[in-house]
Amino acid sequence: MTETTEEHTTDKKLLDQEGDVAADYLEGLLDICDLDGDIDIEVDASRARVSIVEVETGDLAHLVGEDGEVLQSLQELSRLAAARETGERSRLMLDIAGFRTKQKVVLEDAAKAACAEAQRTSAPVRMAPMNPYERKVVHDMVATLGLASESEGDEPARRVVIRVS
What is the pTM for the complete model shown? Predict the structure, then answer.
C-alpha cells in the first residue's frame, strides 16, 4: 500500500470511529430524554456526519432549538466525546431532523441573492453575522458563482463580505 492509501485508510478508520462514538453518545442522550430517532452515520473524505432522523414529526424540535443553538451545543458535545475516545480533534457534523439540510438551502439562496446584488452594484455586500458552518456554506456558494468572499469581524458578529472578483 502506498503512503497516500495508508493515510486515507487511517483517516477513514478515524472518521468511522468518530461517527460511531458520536452515534453511541447521541443514542444515550435520546434514551435519557425518552425520544425516538434513528441515527444515520455518513463518512466522506473530510469528516463524519451524524444525523438524527425523526420518527415522529416534531419530536426532536427541542433538540434543534431556536436557530439551531441546541443543535450546535450537541454537536460540540458529540465532538468532545469523539475526541476523548480517539485522541484527535473532531470536525464531526451533526444534523437533527434535517435542520442543517434545510438551513443550507436557505443560506445558499441568500448567498446567490447577495452575489447578484454585488454584481449589480459592483459594491461589496456584507451579510448578517453567521456561525462558522454558515459562513462556510456561503463561501462555497460564492466561489461556485465565481465571486470573491472573505469573513470580517469577531465572533459572534463575524460575517461574510462578497465582492466582484
Answer: 0.81
